[in-house]
């Protein structure tokens, strides 16, 4: 989510995340750069109550 606004900073962060030994997250393509990752998908059926006061 940071890559479009700060691509150089996001790339540096991503390179550090890639070097971590215990990585979680199966939808993440660890062999690709941060700029080649997919965007999160929205679950339209998620039951979320919105309360506006």
UniProtKB/TrEMBL annotation:
Keyword field: Aminoacyl-tRNA synthetase, ATP-binding, Ligase, Nucleotide-binding, Protein biosynthesis
Residues in Methionyl/Valyl/Leucyl/Isoleucyl-tRNA synthetase anticodon-binding domain copies: 1-46
GO molecular function annotation: aminoacyl-tRNA ligase activity; ATP binding
Signal peptide (residue range): none
Tree of life domain: Eukaryota
GO-annotated biological processes: tRNA aminoacylation for protein translation
Alphabetized InterPro entries for the sequence: M/V/L/I-tRNA-synth_anticd-bd, tRNAsynth_Ia_anticodon-bd
Protein name: Methionyl/Valyl/Leucyl/Isoleucyl-tRNA synthetase anticodon-binding domain-containing protein
Organism: Nesidiocoris tenuis
